[in-house]
Design a protein that fits this description.
Layout: H1 2-20, E1 24-32, H2 42-50, E2 54-63, E3 66-74, E4 76-85, E5 95-103, E6 108-115, H3 120-134, E7 141-146, H4 151-160, E8 164-165, E9 182-187, E10 191-197, E11 206-211
Parallel strand pairs: 6-7
Antiparallel strand pairs: 1-3, 2-3, 4-5, 5-6, 7-9, 8-9, 10-11
Helix pairs in contact: 1-2
């Protein structure tokens, strides 16, 4: 029974990632060998399904024998990466992944992905910190993640840092989304299209964009 559940989770996660067919994929709250996800290495499953050739994983939670965290998957190369640790008011560690990547097309860009705090003053301070750090990385720049805030809250800080918020519909909760708390923001990149996609194994819907 446990093995069947584990295999089902494996297949659903893989199917969802394959359906996105993304050159860059940012995932939050991804488990590695956690009891709650039947000891599946979700980072490995997602990387294989995405046909990723490089990845960065930043742990936010450790419950032996497993961990959970944020992951950036890339079809291409990661030229440089770093983990940024936020000050937080919660028991869960909050981190961001920053990376300089070269895609298979040869295009290079700086990417940040994160999952911010739910407390409003704290999340705003965390976003400000992250944007200051991202601006030290070379353009063009891309920010991805669950910011736990609505567009009208995120937009002023993003605009002040020279980033444009990518439009999109509600992403949470997945079954009947009423709020958009998952975001992309770009600088030096052109937006061609965007869509919100329901995934088979997430409580959020995915925000997908084609950039030029």
């Amino acid at each position: 029974s446990a093995n069947l559940v584990s295999n089902l989770l494996f297949e659903l996660l893989a199917a969802g990632v394959r359906s996105l067919d993304s050159d860059l994929l940012a995932l939050q709250e991804v488990d590695q060998f956690m009891v709650r996800s039947w000891f599946v290495d979700q980072v490995d499953v997602a990387a294989r399904a995405a046909a990723a050739t490089a990845s960065v994983y930043a742990k936010t939670e450790t419950i032996p024998p497993g961990t959970a965290g944020n992951v950036l998957l890339v079809r291409g190369q990661i030229l440089k990466s770093d983990q940024f640790d936020f000050r937080t008011t919660s028991k869960m560690r909050r981190t961001a992944v920053l990376a300089s990547v070269r895609l298979g097309s040869g295009e290079e860009l700086s990417v940040a992905t994160t999952h911010l705090e739910m407390d409003r003053p704290t999340q705003l301070a965390q976003l400000e910190e992250l944007l200051e750090e991202l601006l030290l990385w070379p353009a063009p720049r891309l920010l991805l993640g669950d910011l736990n805030m609505r567009p009208e809250t995120a937009r002023p800080l993003l605009s002040a840092a020279g980033l444009t918020l990518v439009p999109g519909g509600p992403t949470f909760p997945a079954s009947n989304p009423s709020a958009r708390i998952d975001h992309m923001a770009i600088a030096g990149l052109a937006l061609r299209s965007t869509r919100v996609v329901r995934m088979p194994v997430s409580d959020h819907r995915a925000l997908e964009a084609e950039l030029g």
